[in-house]
């Protein structure tokens, strides 16, 4: 895996942010995570910070103010970010959500696992995929 990876998680649940960070640091202490609790704030900041280019995004579907679908669409409109890999990171196992987000440009769909031990391999798989295809 690449020596340093910068991930952005857009998720309104603080507990999920902490679990995500813990899992990423278990995978590699060199992974940097940046968090936004709201899609609206994330999109605004990403537009403002013109030099910021993360390696990947993880976006929750169910958030107040701006949901994950809208957030994904807005990120894909930002020219420098349109090709950055995106994984939807959600509790929804609805095949319709999976299909819609894939059609909107998401590269992967990760269901928030009840177990930390189940989450980590899914994150590793996505990170390896983006490294191989990046």
Automatic annotation (TrEMBL):
InterPro entries: CheY-like_superfamily, Sig_transdc_resp-reg_receiver, TCS_response_regulator. It comes from Chitinophaga cymbidii. It comes from the Bacteria. The modification 4-aspartylphosphate is found at residue 60. One of its GO terms (biological process) is phosphorelay signal transduction system. This is Response regulator. It holds the Pfam family Response_reg. Residues 6-127 form the Response regulatory domain. Keywords: Phosphoprotein.
């Amino acid at each position: 895996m690449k020596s340093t990876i910068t991930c952005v998680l857009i998720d309104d649940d603080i507990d999920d942010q902490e679990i995500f960070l813990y899992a990423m640091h278990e995978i590699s202490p060199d992974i940097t995570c940046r968090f936004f609790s709201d899609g609206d704030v994330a999109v605004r900041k990403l537009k403002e910070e013109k030099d910021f280019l993360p390696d990947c995004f993880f976006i929750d579907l169910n958030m107040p103010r701006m949901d994950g679908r809208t957030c994904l669409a807005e990120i894909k409109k930002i020219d420098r970010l349109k090709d950055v890999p995106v994984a939807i990171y959600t509790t929804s196992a609805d095949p319709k959500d999976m299909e819609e987000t894939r059609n909107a440009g998401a590269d992967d769909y990760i269901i928030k696992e009840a177990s930390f031990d189940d989450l980590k391999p899914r994150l590793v798989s996505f990170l390896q995929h983006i490294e191989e295809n990046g």
